[in-house]
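Posted in: Protein Modeling Q&A

I'm a second-year student putting together a small comparison for a lab meeting, and my supervisor asked me to include a predicted structure for Cytochrome c domain-containing protein. I've never done this before, so apologies if this is the wrong subforum. The sequence is pasted below exactly as I got it from our records. If anyone can share the structure token output, I'd also love a short note on what stands out.
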Amino acid sequence: MSIQNKIILGTASFVGIMLLVGWIIINEPARMEVFTQQWEGRSIERGAELYLNNCYSCHAEDGLGLSGYAPALKNPMLFLEENPGKVANDQLRAMRAELNQLRRAIENYQADITLRAELLARRDAAPEGSEERQSIQMQLDEVDTRIRLFDPNTPQKIDELLPRIAEQEAKVEELRAQGWELNREPRLKELNWTGGLEAYLRSTLIAGRPTSGQLWNGNIMQAWGQEAGGPLRPDEIENLVAFIMNYREEALKLTPNDIRQGFKIASEGTVAADKEVLGAGVDVMALDLSGGDATAGQQKYTSFGCAACHSAPGGAAYNFAPTAGTYTRVENVRLRLDQFSGYTPEQYLAESILYPSRYIVPGGEAVQMPANYADQMDLQDLRDVIAYLSTYR
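Accepted answer (user: helix_wrangler)
Welcome! Here is the predicted structure, written out as tokens:
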């Protein structure tokens, strides 16, 4: 082959390779998107199988829950950022407050007109130059100022506001009839959960809800993740999360009347009546924190919801405050900070549990840890959890 033909062949090959690479580059995003969709689809399918094998007996095959037994997962209150019933009711309250304010303004104006006439009569009857006359004049000046500041359009504003209130009242009643609770936040806001829905589902699946029997007639949601002693691998937990998240589009079209069972919230009455909880404001430094049982503490660490965030990969606090190594970090890092001078590891842990906002671990600024454990734990609960954490040296 001549040199000229070799050059032509090489040039053609180079151009062909460049065209092929360019074609791949152009089409790669679309190919990856298709691949991702296929992967997510398979994950949802596997999650559906796991749901039918493990979850449907409580949450129902269609995800709409079983009355008195377990809540719906295909639930608008799980996926919504705002409860439309509460939003509409809050707007109605604001309108009514505005109406009351306008009506009070008219009442005050009318009262000032009457008061002005009385003050004028008293002033004119008082001796010229007397202190009494001067005092009345000062009061009269204040009344005149209020009268001048009165908005003459107030009656018109009331007339315009009344039909808006009537329309809003009808809207609120329509939402109430659909089953929306007017003073309740969506699920994540209700729980003060700031880590996102996927993280909430993941942590709940992994650690379960050991105290759910108090709400659901003894029906307890077990821990499903292997990290918390359950049967499911991390990838299976992720498949279940994907399956439940796939409810979103359909759930957002539903109203509370379309599901069989909504969420319940634990009331303060779920704490045993004979349990002497520590109570808000307890002085950590005055507590005797010895005598904890690490075995009991492990169970309590899960039942109080700590394991869901701190022990499970993907948990809200796992990346910056994992359970593993807790006690070692306290001794080697936290207690070297000036603000914890004089603390023992147990006192630091107690304060972190009862008053989590006093010190935010680096990386945890965006995560809100529950601040009501003092109203849930008695002294032995706290001792046991600390004893359990002390095993992570």
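A couple of things worth pointing out for your meeting: The chain has four domains: 1-34, 76-80+192-270, 84-177, 284-389. The two ends are 75 Å apart (CA to CA).
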